[in-house]
Specification:
Number of domains: 1
Helix content: 25-40%
Radius of gyration: 17 Å
Structural class: alpha+beta
Number of strands: 6
Strand order of the largest sheet: 2-3-1-4-5-6
Strand content: 15-25%
Length: 190
């Protein structure tokens, strides 16, 4: 960063640190012990859509790397999602898959298209929760959509999200800017 950048208040963007994903297994233990949320065994990676042959190539490469089926879909906003499934007890395997997909997309030159990764959880009452990793910020945030009749209009449980942030303060690098806690409605793995 140069002198002029400092005077004008510009800063270097945070470099993505995909190794932060490896903090998820310990965060999952804390989350279960402190708040009763258990991993679902589902996780996903979201990236801006890639057209044509490049997208098919990504799908094939990911399936080859993971050695198991990976589900690809596109949401109503045009973003592509890759869903990975593991047993709920295999958190490390799920995190390895998410890291592998992110790393392979990044090394293939698709890093700018990466948006986020998430890992799903549920509590005994069936409430969903996701821990979302923002690729371009290198930080996490909790996303807790409301379920049932009150959740039909896409509402969030903000109190639960703030509670989870406090519970995981020692486990994850949490995104400090709450305006960047974007909703991921209908995300695969949630």
């Amino acid at each position: 960063m140069g002198f002029l950048d400092a005077i004008l208040g510009r800063s270097k963007p945070v470099r993505p640190d995909l190794d932060r994903l490896f903090a998820l297994p310990s965060a999952a233990v804390t989350l279960q012990a402190a708040a009763g949320f258990r991993p679902t065994g589902l996780g996903s990676v979201c990236f801006a859509s890639v057209e044509g042959g490049a997208f098919r190539g990504i799908q094939e490469e990911v399936r080859d790397l993971l050695g198991r089926p990976a589900e690809f879909s596109q949401d109503e906003y045009g973003y592509s999602w890759m869903l990975a499934r593991h047993g709920p007890e295999d958190i490390a395997g799920l995190v390895n898959d998410l890291h592998t997909v992110n790393s392979s997309l990044e090394s293939a030159g698709f890093g700018p298209q990466l948006l986020c990764s998430l890992m799903g959880f549920r509590d005994d009452r069936g409430r969903p929760l996701a821990l979302v990793y923002l690729y371009k910020r290198g930080t996490f945030y909790p996303f807790a959509p409301l379920t049932g009749p009150e959740g039909a209009a896409e509402k969030r449980d903000n109190a639960l999200e703030l509670e989870i942030r406090a519970v995981l303060a020692d486990d994850l690098e949490t995104e400090p800017d709450l305006s960047r806690w974007f909703p991921v409605w209908g995300a695969p793995g949630l």
